Amino acid sequence: MSPDELRRECVELLVKANDGHPGSVMSLVEIVHEVVQDLDLTRDKLIISKGHGGMVLYPILHERGMISDEDYANFRKPGAPLTMFPNRHIKGIPVSCGSLGNGVGYGCGFALADRSCRVVVIISEGELYEGSTWEALMFARHYNLTNLRVIVDKNDAITLGTPEECLSIPWGILYHFPFVDVRETVKGAGVPAWEGKVSSHYWSKP
Amino acid sequence: MQQRDAFLTELYHAAERDSNIVLLNCDFGAIALDQWRANLPAQFIHCGISETNAVNVAVGMALSGKHPILYAMAPFWLRAYEQLKLAAVMGVPLTLVAVGAGLSYAGSGPTHYGLEDIQAYRALPGVKLYTASTANLAAAMARDSLTNAGMSIYRLERGELPELYEADCKVEQGYRRLGEGNSNPYLACGYLVHWLRARGHPVIDVYRLNPMNPMLAMLLDEYDHVFTFEEQYGGFGNAIIETLAQYSKKTRVFKRTLPHRGIYENGTRDELLEALL
Asked: Would the pTM count as exceeding 0.95?
């Protein structure tokens, strides 16, 4: 599946559900597509801490046979298992996310429990406001968790505008955490109605 | 022996046999922890003063097959309440040890008191909640914790208190009537069990606060009224009232709580209780 195909699958799922956080899903597409190439999702842990964009993984899990055709077709339908915010009862989802600022801490736990397991946590730049994110980054450094990688989806948009002013200090500090990788992305990328728009955090038909 | 040392010693011996048992410490000491740090360093995780992260790390470890034990001062776990909620709704097996229940840190002021935690923890789905009144009871709770499949929270008292339980006691019952007599009982947990006994009251030690044992209501149904005493703002008495409302027809509850405000008064624990309860 190419990034474009992944993007198309996600748009179709969102349109079918008529709900979701499209801007956050679209900005994740390239990052997730690249990261999963090296991961065995039946064993390694990919944690999308920004849970509102986590459904970007469903097409990949479906392609790899970890989500059945029936469950995939029934995304977000009553009684069906696939939720908008992925939860840990879905194969390939290591831990439920949705409340921001918790994913790196979970990732530390997985990485420390089994140092042979590769753990990737994708966070939004908005999660750099959360103190718990920094507690976890310091913990990861203290325990030298070389099997942990953190990727920041920096789409330059939070609900009330651009975060640049408040986050100018953290961007400098992140140099001390070599396992953190900051990726410049575009909110709502690839869909004209959503691309570059803060409003695409919330649902609107493309 | 202090309750925390009794509790941790039991777990230490279990950890010697099972390398999956790991202790996550938020920069808080105990005599029993010294041997753990020295002899089982790979199973001792120093989280620093970061309760929220400690809970999240424990969740990741538990979901990897480890058996994490979270250890810190009681009042400060409430900082991680949301993380505990997330762990509870995910059904993650965690053992949380909260040392210094209620007014244990008397004189330190309201930042160091956990006076709302019984109510708060009882609101979490599927959580077992205990308060120990003695070291033997704390040790029994530690043994029991090894078999728990969900989240279990243990509120322990600070300092040494008189022993009321046998060394091989069990915790399945959830409460115990202490002493003889048939007069209207006083229900309490932790330190207040001793405080009330010292004043000559017949006490029922309600050491498991969630889930409550319905048998307790059957026992209390024999009385037209009972008393509840708590170092809380109401959570303990509410648990009793809730249980009685489901199973008892007539028993009235006289509930005594701390005043609903921050406790800034100076004094020892007993002096605070005399003045405020």
From this structure: yes
